[in-house]
Task: structure prediction
Amino acid sequence: MFSYWFLANVSFTALGSSCVVLGATILITPSSPVPKGVIRAMVEESCINIEALLEEFNANEKAIYLPPRNDRVYAYIPLTDKKFRVREVAKVPMRIITNIKDSPALIVFPPGSELIRLAGLSSESSLEASLSHVIVDLLEGAESVKAVRDGEQVIVDIFKSRVKTEFPRFRKVLGSVNTSLAGCVIAASLEEPVSFEEESMNERGRSVRATFRVER
Amino acid sequence: MDKHKIYIITLTMTLLSTVVVLSALKETNLNVYLSIYAICYFVTSAMFKPRRRILDIVGGSLFAVFCVVVGFQVVEILLW
Result:
């Protein structure tokens, strides 16, 4: 406007108009070519196979999220309530069905396993920042995330969850999808095995509080 | 590089080259610039088919400007 009315310079006006067109185009063009809704649906659907596996083996024990091996977090699910040292779990062979001292267990790659690898988490960033990066920014699975570490216990609050978990066995063993993702992030960030302890939801089921224990 | 980035880069190049070429040709009619911007925008959009967050308001505005410019030219020719 200024260059057109006051400077009477058409070239500058044209340059300004081109910048406006370009800026508006950048604003309406999404940075991520794959819709976030599709990513969420794919993550939700990836639970189906794990649910079937858990049902087949009648798994009831809570999972232990193990730090990345080949950049992927994996979950160890005991099939009996036999006690063992969690440190031993990290050494078990990578097989779907494995055992420690005659105690059978399952090893599965939870839905967040690949997402954690793609997120490229750094051990320097805080736990809450890492959780927020994966759950809020990358997946858009919730509106916000808060995490508090009290000794060996980590409490994660996930607000306004947008991801549904309709698989009861999966929720019992690994937690809801967001909780499972949180477990993966904690295991990857702290590079320690993390046991999923419990999960509670508010009345509407949109805010989740999950408790994990860091095993040393 | 994903196609959205290539689309933005291509659009930048075409718009800037339009300004440079028309300025070098000493074009003083702003309508010519805007009409060519509209053509550049629609050609690059047709080539890359980018996804939009919202309705394509840029395309709509450029198309409206283009229609007005062409409309005035047609009226001018008919009345002359």
